[in-house]
Amino acid sequence: MAFLITEDCIMCQVCEEQCPNMAISQNGDGYDIDPYLCTECVGHSGTPQCIEGCPIGAILPHPDFRETQRELEEKFILITDLLAVSA
Ligand code: SF4
Ligand code: SF4
To answer: Measuring from atom 4 of ligand 1, which residue has the nearest CA?
Structure first.
């Protein structure tokens, strides 16, 4: 599943810097995670890096994006191709 950032976010930027998929961006009042770019860090790390780094626990599972390990792996391959094209 993808993750989302709650209104508790204190805008420390840690998660944005740690996301390997560039799925996290500032939205003015806080930060957002693009659920179509979040793979739970599958393909990069064994644990979600944004959750590991958030100092206040402001990142939670997204209820509308529940994906299997295989779906996340396929998403990772697709995103990697997209990022390579846009680089
Ligand atoms: Fe980015 Fe990983 Fe967090 Fe998803 S779990 S938003 S891919 S750092
Ligand atoms: Fe907000 Fe947590 Fe990301 Fe910092 S790490 S910007 S507090 S969600």
So the answer is: 38
